[in-house]
Amino acid sequence: MVLVESNIPPLAQTYNKILTNWSTKIVTIDETKELKSENEHEHGALLENLPVIDLVGLTSEDEGERAECAAEIARASSEWGFFQVVNHGINHKLLRDMRREQIELFNAPFSKKSSCGLLNNSYRWGSPTAVSPDHFSWSEAFHIPLTKIFRPNLLRRVSLSKLLHARMEVLVEYAGEMQKLAKLLAGVLIENLGQKKEEFEEMISCDESTCFLRLNHYPRCRVSTAAELMHGLVPHTDSDFLTILHQDQVGGLQLLKQSQWISVHPRKDALIVNIGDLFQAWSNDVYKSVEHKVIANPNMERFSVAYFLCPSYDSMIGACKEPSIYRNFTFGEYRSQVQQDSKLIGHKIGLPRFLR
């Protein structure tokens, strides 16, 4: 399904306004031979195989197989900060239903998405805090607190029953399944560093009142700078414990490893998991929250859904053992600092702000 132009936010207009204060030359993809016409999502990046972990091992009757699967998860979280999981237990029909509902949601007119209170005013587009071209994201999204999904009456105060129809039922089921998977993986990572999951949850609770879903749409992008392709999503780390991503087959996701951008090749049967800032802080840098980005595609639009495992704003983020690399901070304090930095300088600084 291709979205019509009236459904796309005015990304080019906003981007051009940012360019008025910069000397960067804007071009169309058709005007330059320096940019490839195919596979633009791999521009400037290496192709490597992201670790793929079969989660069947976690439920094996063989203790050795369970231990080896847990070790693979911990190793990938330390060496890559990213990995893919297969046999994850989430029904493929549910993933297809979620994608169908997501496409229909973004197919709504831009005026409806941006102004009518759809999904609790969770719609976002572009980069309001961008102060330079490389801070701008060519994308739109619905960033939805799970508490709004599990209490759908809060979302139906707006008269949009036709537009929402089966969407809420799919969102509820999808969020619930992602929450179970995220907690399973988090439990493995917690126990790998010698702490009981129950003790961790007594201090830090991540449940339906604190976590988020983000529905992403990256419209095709026919403009770029003379230096590089447009960011669909600017380089960043995630401000959570971990993220689970379900992406389509278009590609464009890249992660930073040893100062080199690596393209993540889409795998139809896999979900992508990445470590967030809070797990890096809690693990004293054993687990790595890795910078990643999305490259916009000039020929194809891209869709993905991200689940973010977050604690409550008053949760204190310490370290699993002393001495701690980072000072203790609440999640609310961390989010506030990220927002402040983004507003002042156009991008996130993150964990370096909290070093001892």
Topology:
Elements: H1 11-19, E1 26-28, E2 46-47, E3 52-54, H2 63-79, E4 82-86, H3 92-106, H4 110-115, E5 123-125, E6 140-145, H5 146-150, H6 161-164, H7 167-192, H8 197-203, E7 212-218, E8 223-225, E9 231-236, E10 242-247, E11 253-257, E12 260-263, E13 271-275, H9 277-282, E14 292-295, E15 302-309, E16 316-317, E17 329-330, H10 331-345
Parallel strand pairs: 2-12, 3-4
Antiparallel strand pairs: 1-8, 4-13, 5-6, 6-7, 7-15, 9-14, 10-13, 10-15, 11-12, 11-14, 16-17
Helix pairs in contact: 2-7, 3-7
Radius of gyration: 20 Å
Stretches where pLDDT is under 50 for at least 5 consecutive residues are 31-41, 154-162
What is the domain tally?
Answer: 1
**What would CATH call the class?**
Mainly Beta
**Secondary-structure element sequence?**
HEEEHEHHEEHHHHEEEEEEEHEEEEH
Distance between the termini: 50 Å
Note the total helix count: 10
Helix percent reads 25-40%
Strand content: 15-25%
CATH topology: Jelly Rolls
| Silhouette | globular
Overall pLDDT level = 87
Helix/sheet category: alpha+beta
Protein name: Fe2OG dioxygenase domain-containing protein
InterPro entries: DIOX_N, IPNS-like_FE2OG_OXY, IPNS-like_sf, Iron_ascorbate_oxido_reductase, Oxoglu/Fe-dep_dioxygenase_dom
Family: Belongs to the iron/ascorbate-dependent oxidoreductase family.
Domain Fe2OG dioxygenase: 207-311
